[in-house]
Amino acid sequence: MNDSSWSIFVVLLVLLSFILVGLRQKARESQEYGFGGRFTGRIGGGAAIASNWMSAASLMGLAGIIYLHGYQGLAYVIGWTGGYVLLLVLLASQIRRFGKFTTPEFVGERYGSRPARLIAAVIAIAISVIYCVAQFKGIGLIFSFMFGVGYEQGVTYGALAVVSYLVISGALGVPRNQQLQYLVICVAFIVPLMWLARRLGYFWVLPQFGYGRALTDLWREFRIDFTLPFAHDSLFQWCALCFTLMVGTGGLPHVLSRFYTVPNVRDARWSVVWGLFFIALVYWSAPAFAVFGRLIEARRGMIPSPEAARAAADVVTLNTAVAAGLPGWLVGVLAAGALSAAFFTVAGLLMTGASSISHDIYYSFLNPRASERARMQVAKGGTLVLAALVLIIALKPPGLIAEITAVAFALAGNTIFPLFLLGIWWDRANRYGAIAGMLTGVLCTVAQPLFGGTFPAVAAFFPLTSSALCGTPLVILVMIAVSLATPPPPEEMRSFLEQEVHGHMD
Amino acid sequence: MSRPEKRSKVNLFRPKKGHMRDEVLIILAILFGWVVCTFGFQFLVYACRGTGAGSLLTRLTLFNLPLHFWFTGQFLPLWFIFLCIIFNVYVDRITEYHSRKRDRSYE
């Protein structure tokens, strides 16, 4: 077998192993624990949080953006880790005690409004779609890399593979083994990096520290400075991007719903710490791929033009591995890690989006008398419609993987984060405030493309990928003002918040 | 005899006495540590550029990385983990304290 056949073989092997292990886990669970008796523990819960989080943006997009923008790209590392602090201290335990698992359910219950629930469901679906576009771009790039086909063909094959997986796992009832998945993703990312550091002659045992010398060499030999702070963008842009990703993390629907699979509040809190550690392991490593990539290019006498660098950025991890002469099977391991991260994120998001269409829009709003069978059919149809919509957008991807993902975070940070924050921490927030806040949040997110041309100040304060620095405080103010100007929410809800969510120790 | 009904109040900036006040205090402390290290440091790097302090921040190296790059890329994620641990230890402690206090009130 040649190198590329080895890569394809390893990728298929890894994906197949997930289905087999899933089936085995299912058989064992039903024998030993019965239904729903899954015990994961704090470390297991942390691994599940991390694997739920890992996507093409983490494994491909992050290295790509650092390769392209150097220090500016670190805003992504900080935004995507620092958001967990916000999530832990402000929302995790309280949402769990509130007892509603999905964003539309929480909004429907807390604000007692069907229109608010509908808007929240549409926003959650929009976030899933944008997030999936970034994942599809990653999957398309990996497929075109492995099979040597064009990007459009790659992304179409990728979409078919994801839908097939959903059909197979739906038919067989395969559960996702997230702990195993995290282990595979982490090993698949870090082992090739160690190999790479060794090949280039750097400290390979901990390549996260070893790339420091590569960075120095890059400057000494080629005068390429990766570390210059605020070289291309301003301090405001750095902080705006970082803050947007942080509040976006706190408002991302599939992250929020993770706290319910751990047995109790205390374990849920501690599993966030483990989850953050597991995430940081990958995030400490991603810049190394970017630096090694630039160094190998420079040593080969290639200084790409900005356009060429932008085109290559998202596949910098794979290209670097190939350019450094890593064996085909190891490149396959790297591709398998990135592909499974993107693949399972898409599968999870499409299923969640489809169930939201079926439950929150069709059943709760359009047809409350729908039978179980009709709801199931809507969910299945919804999956296909969402997958097709994502595929159409992903055929002409509007930006880099990390940039597309950042837009999803901006939307989540501008809409869902304030809704949860005030919903949990301010009993006076009401349905009118919630609706006004969500609409303002959506406007803030799309302000640059819609009004940026006419009002340059809008584009400056609400950049598409980083609108939440100005957007979130604005939405909070709107929610407070509208809530105060309208009647307070029902006393039952305020008592529930006081006694159940915050008063459990009184 | 009926007592006047107590009005429910939940407000992050006016927490109730007891567990909630302790919890809010630690939340605000952690958020302070989070803001200062994340954004305060970037302001510092920006404000000090072109000065001796700026040169110290960007030229001094740790693990062969310039200090500011090391601080942002490697130390901050570690700092976030540390903040989460502090928060959890403290919340575990106040939860235990208040649950003991609450149990005694039932005696």
Automatic annotation (TrEMBL), chain B:
UniProt domain Sodium symporter small subunit: residue ranges: 17-99
NCBIfam families on file: Na_symport_sm
Stretches that traverse the bilayer: 24-47, 67-91
Keywords of the record: Membrane, Transmembrane, Transmembrane helix
Record bears the keyword Zinc-finger: no
InterPro entries per UniProt: Na_symporter_ssu
Keyword Plastid belongs to the record: no
Protein name: DUF4212 domain-containing protein
